[in-house]
Prior knowledge:
By secondary structure, chain A is α+β, with helices and mostly antiparallel strands. Chain A is built from 3 helices and 7 strands, in the order αββββαβαββ. In chain A, the strands form 2 sheets. A 5-stranded mixed beta sheet of chain A has the order 1-2-7-5-6, covered by helices on one side. In chain A, helix 2 (60-82) packs parallel to helix 3. Chains B and C meet through strand 1, strand 2 and strand 5 of B and strand 5, helix 3 and strand 6 of C.
Amino acid sequence: MVSAELKLKTLSIMLPSMPMPLGAYEMTVQAGNLLFLTGMLPLKGREPQFIGKLGKELNAKEGREAARMAALNALAVARKHLGSLDKIKRIVRTSFFLAVSNDFIDHPNVADGASELFRDVFGADRLSVRSVVGVMSLPLNTPVEIEVTFEVTL
Amino acid sequence: MVSAELKLKTLSIMLPSMPMPLGAYEMTVQAGNLLFLTGMLPLKGREPQFIGKLGKELNAKEGREAARMAALNALAVARKHLGSLDKIKRIVRTSFFLAVSNDFIDHPNVADGASELFRDVFGADRLSVRSVVGVMSLPLNTPVEIEVTFEVTL
Amino acid sequence: MVSAELKLKTLSIMLPSMPMPLGAYEMTVQAGNLLFLTGMLPLKGREPQFIGKLGKELNAKEGREAARMAALNALAVARKHLGSLDKIKRIVRTSFFLAVSNDFIDHPNVADGASELFRDVFGADRLSVRSVVGVMSLPLNTPVEIEVTFEVTL
């Protein structure tokens, strides 16, 4: 099994600092060997780095970057909880919510902005399941929210 | 660990009677120590107590009350399954779906109507992870649906 | 416990061939005794069989058929992973995302197109929990996406 921490170094990827909660909730909860994460947004701290809807203010390329930023936040949050990403056995589940205009149709491409990062870090033999949904709006008017569940070693 | 049942009494919170299914599904399924709940709406029995979309027919304050009512239904359903809320180790995950108008932006505030109830009942050291999404519409034209997963003692 | 494989034969239900991924993800991930599935669409292979939104291009009856097709895909994917549906202890959780027009109100009826199939195959004593949400749009402009989690025997 490839080391995710080593892979991050090889890819010269620096994880961002932790995003901050916007209400009465935690960023992570572990139950047994499942680690559940709060829905990740493309924030730095509490500040959104992408604003608007896909197909309106933002195009698919920007959506991919926003998805990647949310995925990096997920990794930062997981590392903070676990100490090291190498305690992640695999990514189990990723649920993507994309804030979209009525006629946006490029959902899988945007989600791949995050899924391809996860593939690069954890390897193609540890891909997750995925759902992708186009919604009306997301907190702070961001374009992408990702719910991630990890399986971790105890 | 604080007793959730005692806390309910201290706060003079009476749980409502069980909401009724609207189709071919159960209100609860337990798998190991995870207790999964059907998406909770602001119903009494099968009757919606809040109708409409946030930012249109309903404002954020009403949305908070609707979220709190859905959360109380979640507790009623969990108690029915478990016998006592004191068998809940913690709330693991809460997913909020808010039916919103196009320009509604107060998602985290509405979700806190439920999250703050859970914090008051289970304590600030047992907060859940959370995702919040603004959607087009919900069953029975209600403004809030909450999916809750609990970790329970076996 | 009724045999789901036998029940499929009795009901003369043939499962479709596997749907194909649209990006960097897997169709199934098992963690312990939980089997998580990618969001299922009403596809054959990669080809959508229903296009459009409920309440606009499609009515509730077509929505029920689309939901049933997505549910059959879920069974095909689960059988591929497990070898036999008889390794399923029960369906734990089903999350329905319905692409809807602004005034569509028949969400539970559409979801029952899938829930009733699951009831017929696994029996009324093994129903799942359920959430149903009306959203803006789904991948490939399909009207229904279902996220399914199974509890399986190890």
